[in-house]
User: Fold this.
Amino acid sequence: MPTTYTTVPSPTEATFDNTFQGLRDYDPVSFVANLVQTYGDIVRLPFGTQDIYLLNQPDFIRDVFVNKSSYFAKRKDTTSEGTYLHQISGILPLFEGQLGTTYAPIMVDAALHADGRWDAIHQEHNLLRVDIYKEVMRITLEIVFKTLFQADVEAEAGKVADAIVTMDVGYGFDPIAALLNDLVPSTPVSMTPEAEAARSYMLNLMLRLIQAHRAALPDSRSLFFWLLKQQENGQLTSDEQIADQALKIMFSMHEVTATTLSWAWYLLSQSPEVEARLHAELTSVLAGRTPTFEDLPNLPYTEMLLKEVRRLYPSVWIVGRFVRDDVSFGDYLVPAGSILLFSQRLLHRDRRYFVNPDRFDPLRWTQEAQAARPEFSYFPFSAGPRQCAGRDFAPTKDALILATLAQHWQARLVPGQQLEPYPQKSFTPRYGIQMTLHRR
Assistant:
């Protein structure tokens, strides 16, 4: 399949500068999609003293993540990059060896708590209408706090969920500009007053949990244990810095599952055949009992379904890297100091690799279908030394929650609402997803 390389003409105020004016002024997904459609698999965009290169080819993604990963960094500043890699190496042990024995039961328990809450409301009112995004968020927050922080925030679950939704939609900056700011700090970030208040609440919650962790016996399974070790070593100097780091990690771990499962319930409500096949598998394998970690290999359709959700609504829709050294993609040279952008959203719906790419079809994920596609036409959790620390945690969490709840509940979309996949870091449902839940 030939690869094309084209340079975007010098930008004008109407075509490029307005890109960084905020989400209210443009659709960032359409912007990058139009660039690739117009100019090809490598697009160069002049941007001040640096160039931005937009990549859209699986072999190039493999080079960035695996073959030539040493040429790239997530931060321009080498100190920040070293801190990031140290964080990843420190977080990974929290997941390794605990997924099946410790974390999976917590995931199932959180889903069962939601099942009980839904059942109580359903019996009282004979109608259960919910924002499925907030409901899933309550489940995922319970899991993240109990697994990563060894803390129970169930008493504040509703307030925490509201704060996160407010923060999700209250950032006054555009996601591409924010990504560039992360790579090469330059773009001021603003938040609405409501989002600032929500962030202050969440930081204060983290500070309270840090103090409680200090007062208790040290628990090496807690993220706070590892972050406090960094404070002892001088890498983090204050509790406020620890709280900020904990909040960022909590967001990334929670958001992956909250968005995936929200869109899963929506897609199931629109796809009766897929829903019926999922129910048939759950009935055959589980026969009404609560799933366990050991059941997951016997639920292949559930796994395929969730892979397809992540294809259509990736938890991270665009990724960036700073180019440390001159590097070639095919016969095209990208100079050191440039910035790379590449989008899961674009490749995941690329017609070259996915027939009828906008259609929800879990059977794309049979072994035969996967083998027929380039490996990096799909990369929901990155790869290589900078891959997502929760690459196994999130799929396990998704599958156990869905298998627990879909046995007993069907979701139906409330008509007449505005559905908008809001492209911040992930495709957050900007106005939520109103659904009615029905006992099977």
Remarks:
- Confidence is low (pLDDT under 50) at residues 1-5, 7-24.
- The radius of gyration is 22 Å.
- The chain is about 50% helix and 10% strand.
